[in-house]
Amino acid sequence: MHFLRSVLLATACSAILSVSAAPTPIEADLATRDVEDSITLDRRTGGGLLKAFGKLAISGAQKGQSRRKDTKEKKRKANEKILGSVPRVRAPEHLTEGKSASERAKLHQAAHDKARAQALTHAQKARKEERRKMWESARGSSRKDKPSTRTRYRSPGEKHRTAHALHDAHDRMQHTENIPHRHDRFSVGGHSTTGRHVRQAVGNSILYHDDPVGRGDNKNPKPFRNDPYSSSHGDHHLRGTQPIPSSSHGGRNLYEYPVTHSHGGYYGSGRPGPSRAITSHDDHRDVFHGVVGHDPHRGGDHDDHYMASYHPHSGSSRSSNHYQDYRYS
What we know:
This protein is of the alpha+beta class. The chain contains nine helices and eight strands.
């Protein structure tokens, strides 16, 4: 009996506390959003994105959540200002005649809610019209006179050719000799890149090989000259040697393509970045020779290229000198 009495007392106390601590709708909404935000961060962290993008991805997500909250708060204050100017509206008498007090109150509240909604709609339309007039005065023309910027949809044939080119480039990249592992790393001149981005550069180099992208003389992929270092180079071990130690290649049929941190790769806009993936394509044989970049601290000319240091991932059978020792045959 004593145990049963204790259980009943504890249940009653918890029920009283839950009733007294019941959150208001606004508090419940804020609490729900806070929980959703936390879940979003946990999913990003647990899903491995933290390892892929680092702290910038998390801080970016947090900034985005803060901006959303600030936008909602700004919108709420603007709506309150609009609704505050709406006078109290009552339902027509012919609708409330013969109704009970509670029914009349509901009808009056419904009429007032409708007036508030109409006020918000009118304010939104007025704001859009004001923005439209502002745009026309700044541009000197109306939207109707503006030429269409609608995206031109590709024909089925164009879609098929595009898909085939992407599939072929990806397949050739997968079968490229010497292709690095995704988790390998390359570093040169104080810059570092991953094998994943190098693989993307190799695939895009194959994709754009017949039709380089870019402007003027800076179209990529472009031939890589593989010029030897001068006989007066500061590092006597490099004098007379070439950046890509492929003796039988002699610098022929080598191509360079920028290594960027973008899946689409370099397509002519912006800066191409400091690193280049070097490949060759002879008789449908695709070979990756390494990553090169400039390093002013090596003591050579400012336009000299140097082979990037190779850092294989744990468990790899390759050595750190794999690309330096590789010889094209």
